[in-house]
User: Fold Xanthine phosphoribosyltransferase from Acinetobacter pollinis.
Amino acid sequence: MQALEQKILTEGIVLSDNVLKVDAFLNHQIDPVLMQQIGKEFAARFKDQGITKIITIEASGIAPAVMAGLELGVPVIFARKYQSLTLKDDLYRSKVYSFTKQTESTIAISNKHIHSSDHVLIIDDFLANGQAALGLADLIHQANANIVGIGIVIEKSFQTGRDLLIEKGYRVESLARIQSLNDGKVTFIQA
Ligand code: 5GP
Assistant:
């Protein structure tokens, strides 16, 4: 997706050979126009798949997921990373190792919002080693719902996540695919 790649090139900051900071438009400040385009692109790629729900993870997956939900006309659930006071019982839970925080945390969704009849699209901001996506997939499996695919805003293709998810049989659609962050420079895999 060209507008996204352009934004990454102009406003992304390469923190190291494997971490990209996009606080200017996705992870802290949010660019609503770009998010709308991202939502349309996910919707175009997954239309006609009978999607009934989108699942993402707080916080940075929420903006692109909501925009995709708006386009597809389906509700969006975000997995919580901690057990809040209002979210106590009847939870599906999974453990996820965080690439950026380098700690394991529990993610959870209420079983009230997902059912075995659901066809679910997973959306997240980044794909690195695939642990967040696998954790979300685990929650969906616990509900015996169907996973239609995984939509990623920024995939770092030099890390293991994509291969792992494809190996498990998931369809992965990434809007920007980064080949390398070496030498402080972003290079993309051309579609
Ligand atoms: P994974 O679970 O695929 O290893 O990592 C994906 C998760 O880690 C995403 O939900 C995202 O929050 C975070 N993440 C991974 N790599 C990056 C990165 O280069 N930059 C930022 N901002 N977040 C990342």
